[in-house]
């Protein structure tokens, strides 16, 4: 277990060395990290996917409504799985718990806004990857955009010292598995026809 903790700390520090810490990136990553912003980002991306679909098939289609319902169900399930169930079972403290007096990678005061609950897994990463997976199942052409946003949201949590790297990596896996579970359960491939 000590090996994994050391590896996680090493990767987290490496990410923070690679990503420059300055005012621009502080604001950039805090935009992707704020809980209200991340859901807003996904709603905008859903609208883009629906508008692009509308150009191909005018009018509100049954599959559009099904897509939004699947998205909301998956997003909610992913949040509950990570934030309510897993965090309270595992109870891993956040990085700032280990370094409360002097952050190695200082961020502009007030921008990080890390919650005080537990760290593992990252709910931001869980919901971001779940959202990207569901939207990609609807709009495969722009999967790079959706997963790019999911990666930015996940990296923002490491950059702002709200999570360790493994928190976001496992969060992403949990989100992906949740979305695949829901997509298979509902047999979402029917709404692609």
| Oligomeric state of shown chains | single chain
Distance between the termini: 48 Å
Shape: globular
pLDDT averaged over residues: 80
Radius of gyration: 18 Å
Query: What structural category do the secondary elements indicate?
Result: mainly alpha
What's the main sheet like? none
Question: What percentage of residues falls in helices of 4 or more residues?
Answer: over 70%
Element pattern in H and E: HHHHHHHH
Strand fraction:
under 5%
Number of helices: 8
Report low-confidence residues grouped into runs of 5 or more: none
Number of strands: 0
Keywords:
0% strand, mainly alpha, globular, 193 residues
Give the SSE map.
Layout: H1 2-18, H2 23-33, H3 35-56, H4 62-90, H5 95-98, H6 123-138, H7 143-159, H8 165-186
Concise summary:
With 193 residues, this protein is mostly helical.
Explain how this protein is built:
With 193 residues, the protein is mainly α. It has a domain at 23-93 and 130-193. The chain contains 8 helices and no strands. It starts with a helix and ends in a 7-residue tail after the last helix. The mean pLDDT is 80.
